[in-house]
Amino acid sequence: MRCPRPSKPPGPAIHQLAARLRRLPPSCGPVRLIGIDGHAGSGKSTFAGRLAEALGGAPVLHLDDIASHAELFAWTGRLLAEVIEPFGRGETAHYSPYDWRERGFGPPRSLPAAPVVLIEGVGAGRRALRPHLACLLWLEMTREEAWERGRSRDGEEQREFWDGWVRAETHHFSDDPSRPYAGLLVRQLSEGYEVLPGPLRDPAGHPDVTHREGPPAMW
Fold this sequence. Notes:
Layout lengths: L12 H10 L9 E6 L6 H11 L5 E3 L13 H13 L4 E3 L2 E2 L4 E2 L3 E3 L4 E5 L14 E5 L3 H12 L4 H17 L8 E5 L4 E5 L13 E2 L7
Parallel strand pairs: 1-7, 1-8, 2-7, 8-9
Antiparallel strand pairs: 3-6, 4-5, 9-10, 10-11
């Protein structure tokens, strides 16, 4: 798994990132599978949507559609069978998205083996998936800040769920951390994003240069 290093060319950071992701070698059959991980509430879905747009409409697989109440994190086998294995054969994947309100899986949905496919959600960088990723991105935000944002977003009716989720996520990342294996870190600024080198450095040893869009963040 080798991520593109950040570089200097002008233009919004997310478009620079998209251009570099397109140039990566395929990692799962013909697909450049890009993982977007981070704590719940850190903004992964929003970022994935904007990156997909910058990529010209790249498909996005949300892990919220793969997980369920019964399997908050025990969905690896299903994801491998329904998505990763078909991609490895160059075939369209089919999976059944989970309805969190109805507590059941819906009708199958197709996911094309496009040149770039984004997979976003807590656990997108787990050890079972990393061999199939062209690059792992981590949304850089403390878990406390991310969880507070998530709780505020979902409201009081989801309070009990969030209490259980926090315990499950803490256990997951304790056993199977993603951030140490991220090639790039993404920070949300007041406007836009900043892309930084991740803990998994470029194996070629090239210097890393930050690129950002919008004003600098106050950290």
